[in-house]
Structure formats: structure tokens, C-alpha cells
Design goal:
Shape: globular
Number of strands: 17
CATH architecture of the largest domain: Roll
Largest sheet: 7 strands, antiparallel
Number of domains: 2
Strand content: 35-45%
CATH topology of the largest domain: C8orf32 fold
Helix content: 10-25%
Length: 330
């Protein structure tokens, strides 16, 4: 418990003082049913930024035949750390759909001649914030809504939670722990200790990544989600774009992080690649106002599959160039 107390203090100290003590900043709270106790504050938001972001895909038909294409573009959601003010599509989608995880997508029916290309996308105005959850083990409840537990602890092809290697890690790290927050921290620490960042333009499943010892941000997510789900902690991911330089800035790499569900708190951000680069628990329960979420998902979505920006279906050979362009951040 001493170690966890130190972690809690470090997390609080990592938050800028104007976020914690500025009386013009508001503590956000909400009620969660089935809980014996609802804490008076759950997270702090500060440093509001007004942003204008464009997302666009350049779609090329590299085949010798005409391409009939169904395209799905993720529609950014409003979340505790971001508020969507306005969105304009170019061109207008044929329809708006919603997948099994509640993520909305813009659906396009396209036809391209051989070597023809076109651009589809959107322009958005939003507010984004730094956010820091005040995470304390004794504030975490026990009740997980059945729909969340069923949907976000199930297996998936990139997780393989029943793999003996995944099961062995969970038994060795968290088998005797009952508090979900402490269990999540222990599994987080295991991933940080055993993985290093590597980008190779492909995604492997969680057991492969953990055995290999390195992975991209998506593979870190698959590994941590697999361990959390195997340990009974609901987990999903959030994908989006990160502002690495002041606008105008084009992002073609994108980023993915984990969200874990803690009773009394809801969905908590955990970004392990940032924890590896900064310090061990900096991004456990923290979200920067330089990150803008394009979507949230739990696995192979019926529309987005395992991607976190767009997905295309066609028998023809396509080339897709995706870019998020930050125009304003002020």
C-alpha cells in the first residue's frame, strides 16, 4: 500500500498547480448507480484548447479494374476530455452508422476507375482539455454493469486472453489481488517492464508481442487489454491524433491508448507508451490536450475492423493515405 500511496502522490504532483488549485477550474462529478459511495470528485480538467482539425483520406485505385468501394470514416465522439462543437463532411456521407461499441461512422459508397483517386474527410471544431483522474484504491467500487463486463472482457483475435502465456502472466502478477485499480497498476507495470517501443507497420496479437518484447502503441494496447480482460477488468481502446508540433501540423502516424473501466470512476485513460518515455505512472489516469480522439472501440468493429480512423472494403487493390491536419490549437 505504501507503493500505491507514493504513486497517488506522484500523479497529483504531476498535475499543474493551476489545474488543482485554480478556483476557476471546475471539478467534474457524476453519479454511478449500484455504488455504496460516490466520491465528490472524479477528475480535474484544465487548460482548455479550441482546436480545428481536418481529417482526410486520399483513396487511389491501383488496380486494372474499376473499384466498387465501401468506406467507413470514424466520427469523433464527445468525451470527458473533448467536446465536439461542429463537424463538416466533404463530401457528405451516404449514411451515418453505429457499430456494436457505440462508435459512429460515416459510410460512403464509392466507384473509382483504374488509377483514379479521390479525397474524403471532415473538418471539425472542438474543445480539448488536459484531464487527470484522482485514482485512489479505496474509492474504487465492485459493481461492473453486466453489459460492460460482457462486452469488454470477451476475447478477440488480437487479445487471445485464454492463451496459456496470457493466463500465466495474470496468475503470477494479479491472482491474489481483489482491488481492480491495484490489479490494473500491477499489470500496467508488467507491460512497461517487458516491452519497448518499436514500429514495424504491422500488428501482432498480445501473446506474440509480450513474448517478443517490443511493439507499437497499438500492440502495447492489445497486450494490456488482453491482460486486463483476462484478469476481469473491462478494457477497450481509444484511437486518435497527437499534436507533436504547433499548428499547422500534419499527423500521418496516429496513436492508440487504453481505457479501463473502474467502478465509481468509469472509463480511465492509460497510455503506456507515454509512461515509458516520461515516468512510470504519468499517463495512468491522465490525458493530454494535445491528443484528439477519433474513436473508441473494443475490438474488431463491424465497420472499422481493428483500425482507429477509417476502413475500406473492395475487391480491387487500393492505396489509402490518411492524414489529420491540425489547423488551430489555441
Amino acid at each position: 500500500m505504501k507503493k500505491l500511496a507514493v504513486i497517488a502522490v506522484l500523479i497529483l504532483l504531476a498535475m499543474p498547480s493551476n489545474g488543482l488549485f485554480n478556483f476557476h477550474r471546475k471539478a467534474i462529478h457524476f453519479n454511478v448507480s449500484h455504488e455504496k459511495y460516490v466520491p465528490p470528485f472524479l477528475f480535474w480538467r484544465w487548460n482548455e484548447r479550441n482546436v480545428v482539425i481536418e481529417y482526410f483520406d486520399i483513396v487511389r485505385n491501383n488496380d486494372s479494374i474499376a473499384a466498387n468501394i465501401t468506406a467507413y470514416l470514424a466520427i469523433p465522439p464527445s468525451l470527458p476530455n473533448q467536446e465536439i462543437m461542429d463537424i463538416e463532411f466533404e463530401p457528405e456521407p451516404d449514411k451515418i452508422l453505429e457499430d456494436e461499441y457505440g462508435q459512429k461512422v460515416a459510410c460512403y459508397k464509392l466507384k473509382l476507375a483504374p488509377n483514379e483517386s479521390l479525397e474524403i474527410g471532415w473538418r471539425i471544431q472542438a474543445k480539448i482539455y488536459n484531464i487527470r483522474y484522482i485514482l485512489l484504491p479505496f474509492l474504487v467500487g465492485d459493481y461492473i454493469p453486466p453489459d460492460i463486463k460482457e462486452k469488454y472482457t470477451r476475447d478477440g483475435e488480437m487479445y487471445k486472453i485464454h492463451d496459456p502465456y496470457i493466463q500465466q502472466i495474470v496468475r503470477s502478477i494479479a491472482a491474489n489481488e481483489t482491488n481492480l485499480l491495484i490489479k490494473a497498476i500491477k499489470l500496467h507495470d508488467y507491460v512497461i517492464r517487458h516491452l519497448s517501443y518499436a514500429l514495424d507497420n504491422k500488428w501482432d496479437d498480445a501473446p506474440t508481442v509480450l513474448k517478443r518484447g517490443n511493439g507499437s502503441c497499438s500492440e502495447y494496447c492489445f497486450a494490456y487489454i488482453a491482460l486486463c480482460r483476462a484478469a476481469g477488468i473491462p478494457a477497450k481502446y481509444k484511437g486518435g491524433t497527437y499534436l507533436a508540433e504547433l499548428p499547422p501540423y500534419n499527423d500521418s502516424i496516429f496513436h492508440r491508448m487504453v481505457l479501463i473501466y473502474l467502478p465509481n470512476y468509469g472509463w480511465i485513460p492509460v497510455d503506456m507508451t507515454f509512461d515509458e518515455w516520461i515516468f512510470h505512472h504519468y499517463a495512468f489516469g491522465f490525458h493530454s490536450n494535445r491528443f484528439f480522439a477519433l474513436m473508441t472501440g473494443g475490438g474488431a468493429s463491424q465497420y472499422l475492423n481493428w483500425t482507429y480512423n477509417s476502413h475500406y472494403e473492395s475487391v480491387a487493390k487500393l492505396d489509402i493515405d490518411s492524414t489529420a491536419r491540425w489547423l488551430e490549437w489555441k
